[in-house]
Amino acid sequence: MATQSQHTMAATPKTAKVALRKQAKALRAALPERYRLDAAERLSGHARPLLDSLTQGGTVGLYWPLDGELDSRFLLPLIDRLGLTAALPVVTDRDGPLIFRVFALGDPLKDGPFGTRQPGAEAPSVEPDMLFVPLLAFDAGCYRLGYGGGYYDRTLAGFTSVRAFGLAFSAQLVDIMPREPHDIPLHGVLTEEGLVLPGHRHPDI
Ligand SMILES: Nc1nc2c(c(=O)[nH]1)N(C=O)[C@@H](CNc1ccc(C(=O)N[C@@H](CCC(=O)O)C(=O)O)cc1)CN2
Ligand SMILES: Nc1ncnc2c1ncn2[C@@H]1O[C@H](COP(=O)(O)OP(=O)(O)OP(=O)(O)O)[C@@H](O)[C@H]1O
Questions:
Q1: Which end of the chain lies in a sparser environment, N or C, as judged by fewer CB atoms within 10 Å?
Q2: Under which EC number(s) is this enzyme classified (predicted)?
Q3: Of all helices (H) and strands (E), which one includes residue 69?
Q4: Hey, whose CA ends up nearest to atom 26 of ligand 1?
């Protein structure tokens, strides 16, 4: 795990986040390709009980991966087999929440801001029942650090009944997470080692 001295000494949570973002990006980028692939496959197994809890026709928000993010597309075949519908985030407004549009393997995508790929207006927009969220770092309370756009916090503030789980490599767990009033904790974080629930760890599911 990376040393945390740099960000724990920062003056405000905002500047501490800037320092932690840098460390977390470097740590995630250093994971070998083979490890990433194995982790995504193992994580799919741990996702099964969560997806099983949804009823047929339920919707699941994923993301098209950027940089070294854990690849959520591994979940698409399972989502399909369970009769669920996947959706991807769309940035509609730089300071607004994300919306989610239905996506299935093979559907066309367009370039979005920040190097994202997103479905077009022809794909129906949905409010997901379950959301899998990318992150740079998370803590044992399941607070997350993202790229700093605030998109997921704004989105979760508006989606009152969604269950949101981070997807991360276990190496992305940090001891101390700078926290601001708008930060919303996730219901859990799925890693290659299992599901981390706030305050607990269940390696078997
Ligand atoms: N895969 C993925 N999709 C996503 C997100 C995400 O974090 N990951 N988002 C999460 O909010 C939303 C898009 N917001 C984003 C905000 C900043 C950056 C980002 O890469 N920032 C770079 C600078 C890139 C640039 O300016 O061109 C950086 O901080 O290094 C990415 C996505 C919706 N879709
Ligand atoms: N619910 C909200 N309402 C209004 N503004 C918000 C809200 N949540 C976050 N923001 C804004 O977004 C900015 C960035 O937030 P933060 O640094 O927590 O982003 P992040 O969680 O790392 O990014 P992302 O969710 O895009 O991956 C905050 O400084 C704040 O101005």
A1: N
A2: 6.3.3.2
A3: none
A4: 114
